[in-house]
Amino acid sequence: MAQKPSIPKGTRDFSQQEMARRNYIFSTIRSVFDTFGYSQLETPAMENLSTLLGKYGDEGDKLLFRIQNSGEKADLPPEKGLRYDLTVPFARFVVQHQNEISFPFKRYQIQPVWRADRPQKGRYREFYQCDVDAIGSKSQLCELELVQIVDRVFSLLKVNVLLKINNRKVLTGLAEIAGFPDKVVDITVAIDKLDKIGLDAVKEEMAERGLTPDAIAVIEQILALSGSTAEKIAAMRGLMQGGSASGLVSETGMKGLDELEELFGYIAAAGIATEVEIDLSLARGLNYYTGAIFEVKAKDFPIGSICGGGRYDNLTGIFGLPDMSGVGISFGADRIYDVLLGLEKFPEGLGSCTRLLFANMDRDSVLFLLPLVTELRRRGVSCEIYPDPSKLKKQFDYADRKQIPFLSISGSTEAAAGQVNIKNLASGEQKAFPVGDIESILSFIR
Fold it and tell me: Residue 377 in contact with residue 383, Cβ under 8 Å?
């Protein structure tokens, strides 16, 4: 009995049309990255486990795909893993190649990553990320540039999004004024789930992680803040300066508020069209963030975050290069695909790259057409000859299925006259051209 073909859960095949749509996303994002002066690089699919472990928190470590050893080391624990994201491999690259790099270093990567997560709608085990990072500068202008990139990418893709911004120093300050400075990770992991599980469940999780009712009350007070960006920052300043129920002060939290105020000042001056708001509940669970954190959500389509990132000060220090601050953001290509598909935002005609199909009438007509086909391809026109001399209906159906807009039906009569017939399949218009009149043919099919 033949084996039933299948693929692992959480992975997908991509058809020709799907690849055309994905490449539309990739090329759009790449064009914006290029415009802002970022250069492309790639890193291997697998990294040493020592590179990956301990960078994503306990929950992230559990989602690492470990690669089983082979050969002489088959009985030993795994030493390698598939990359979980593109940021940690990037930090490893920067340290490894620091003598070859000019800082600040601006790079982007468009590559797949893997996570041993439970597959569900909008969440896959293998998916692409489109990362853009600047490392070697602490300037908030780098954060502004990421905001501008988000604004430009989704403007080109014609998707309305909401960009949320917070600062990890503010979250550290939150833990400090709650009286649990050693529980920063526990607090951020819990409140990062606010949109998914609700406030009551977040409070319950914080209690399970050892926070007292008084501490939870301080955190709840901050999560409940509303108003404009300026109003939220002002309210937070009062709390960070001893105005909370605990009476505790946080200098770290104040510094985070200063950074948020500066960044939002830049955003206002830059004239960003995208809606941008401060969200004091935004935590993003990755442990390496130390400053600004970003999250982007589609406003008109129900799906999770489609883009996110933040500032990290200590990531390269783990690999032996301290004091190298960086900031980056990652576009989730697969979720963006789902959004564009759901909102019907993909341009028409992406499924076919062929512009002109030459029908195959017989061997002699093919020999007559071959020089023209060669010249058109040389001029950059995507065209093909149907491989078999089949019934015209079959060849018409082929053009229709592939969404080819022009069809040439030229047989022995046209060959004898030195002409080629070309039909616009959408309008029905048909014209005959001398086979050597390339310019007129190009004008007709463009």
Answer: yes
Kindly list the structural domains of the chain, giving each domain's residue range(s) and its CATH number in brackets, ordered by start.
16-342 (3.30.930.10), 356-445 (3.40.50.800)
How many angstroms separate the CA atoms of 374 and 220, rounded? Answer: 70
43: Cβ–Cβ under 8 A, 6 or more apart, which residues?
83, 86, 89, 90, 92, 93, 109, 111
When the pLDDT of each residue in the chain is averaged and rounded to a whole number, the result is 91
Residue type, 332: G
> Helix, strand or coil for residue 112?
strand
Which residue type does 249 have?
V
Report, as an integer, the average pLDDT of 275-289. 82
Beta strand 307-312 with 326-332: parallel, antiparallel or unpaired? antiparallel
* Percent of all residues in the chain with a pLDDT value above 90, rounded to a whole number: 63
- Terminus-to-terminus CA distance in the chain, angstroms? 51
Residue 351 predicted with pLDDT over 80:
no
- Output 208-217 pairs: Cβ under 8 A, ≥24 positions apart: 209/183, 210/180, 210/183, 210/186, 211/178, 211/180, 211/183, 211/186, 211/187, 212/179, 214/179, 214/245, 214/246, 215/178, 215/179, 215/180, 215/246, 216/178, 217/245
Tens of pLDDT along 39-64? 999 999 999 999 999 888 788 889 99
Query: Which residues of 115-222 form beta strands (DSSP E)?
Result: 126-135, 161-167
Alpha carbon distance 90, 40 (integer Å): 11
Indicate the pairing of strand 326-332 with strand 126-135.
Answer: antiparallel
Q: What is the DSSP string of 14-69?
A: --HHHHHHHHHHHHHHHHHHHHTT-EE----SEEEHHHHTTSSHHHHHHT--EEPP
Q: Of 14-18, 126-130, 178-182, 191-195, give the lowest mean pLDDT range.
A: 191-195
Reduced to 3 states, what is the DSSP secondary structure of residue 349?
Answer: coil
pLDDT tens column, 105-160: 999 999 999 999 888 876 789 999 999 999 999 999 999 999 999 999 999 999 99
Q: Is the dihedral of CA 203, 209, 211, 213 positive or negative?
A: positive
Residue 333 pLDDT: 92
Structure tokens at 101: 């790099």
Specify the pTM. 0.85
Dihedral of the CA atoms 55, 58, 59, 64 (nearest 10)? 60
